Amino acid sequence: MDAFGDMIRGVRAQGSLFGSSTLTPPWSLHFVDGAPLTLCAVLGGGGWVVPEGHPPESLRPGDTVIVRGPGTFTFVDEVGTRATPVACGEFCTAPEEGGTRHRRGWHDPGDAGAAGATTLVVGAYPVRGEISGRLLDALPTVLRVDSGGGGDPVLEHLAAEVATDTPGQQVVLDRLLDWLLVCSIRTWFDRPGGEPPAWYAAQRDPVVGDALRLLHAEPAAAWTVSSLAGRAGVSRATLAKRFVDLVGEPPLTYLTRWRMTLAADRLVEQESATLTEVAHAVGYSDAFGFSTAFKRTRGVSPSEYRRTTRSPGPATASGRP
């Protein structure tokens, strides 16, 4: 497991598709859910995404955009469109409203080829817990990947899948959206002139990357800088310097913060787990040492954190046409 894989593992599509919509101008869809992450893929045509409080972004065929909540956004045929915004959220709009056609199924022959039509697929994602929250913090409000990016093969599969009604289709579409989400974020981080978070960029370093993978694969191990350096095949001094230079903090400081992130999610998601069990799971021999480290890092005790942080419940995604 690497740092990126760890942080994105809690972001999953599950029935997270607005029915692939064919839109004929003028149209204006206002996505009111304010989901933590919303993925929009343009299979044909184009338009503009207008995030709340941010400038519009043009979208062309093959483009993908990720919008970070909690703000809402609007998808329009053109900036200043005369179409009345139609709220997309719990229910889909009727075909006669706003010149926009939605459908609950996937196959709707005849509309996609209409002049000026746009075909859009949207997935709304939950982002649960502290682990995935660290990834969310590294993303801008609007992340756009142009056609030709790493997700192009996925878009081809999406376009083929939404054109037919077949058993298990929703499961396939969910997986394709997950694939597209990962590809889009990686392409954004890796773009020329990009400024990815330090923990992502450092994974490409042959020394620090190995150390990060070890820390994420075995967070409960009794790591020291010396033992980590030995596993990475370098001297203690070399690892310590390169880690600080690339990640911005010493290896064991990073490890402690990561352990507390893991512990925070365990405290909320595993309500029956004792503090001792959580402590052992993240590398502490007893609840006292764990509680001291948690309070030093988080400012509250594990028990208080558990009491005041509401359990997110089962992981589900909004998927309403």
From TrEMBL:
Keywords: DNA-binding, Transcription, Transcription regulation. The lineage of its organism: Bacteria, Bacillati, Actinomycetota, Actinomycetes, Pseudonocardiales. Residues 301-321 are annotated as: Disordered. Residues 209-308 form the HTH araC/xylS-type domain. This is AraC family transcriptional regulator. The keyword Transport does not apply.
